[in-house]
Amino acid sequence: MLLVIEVADSSLEFDRENKLSIYAEAGIGEYGIVNLLDSTVEVYRNPAGSVYANRHEARHGETLEIRNLPGASIAASEILPP
Prior knowledge:
CATH class: Alpha Beta
CATH architecture: Alpha-Beta Complex
Radius of gyration: 12 Å
CATH superfamily: tt1808, chain A
Number of strands: 6
Distance between the termini: 29 Å
Structural class: alpha+beta
Helix content: 10-25%
Order of helices and strands: EHEEEEEH
Oligomer: single chain
Strand order of the largest sheet: 1-2-3-4
Number of helices: 2
């Protein structure tokens, strides 16, 4: 699996802690959390053990490159609430 995206409001802490470590340990290259509370997309990349080496937050107006799918991208506005 190259990419996992979760949508979170009440599950945000669980997704950041529990699921993040599970996906990192499984070697999932990119993990995204659509954070409905802060209207951001949290992108975690480069798994290293049970953590990710890189974290980026995208907001409306930004485009997210999907690194494991060359040429693929998505506008944060397309997946965030208005």
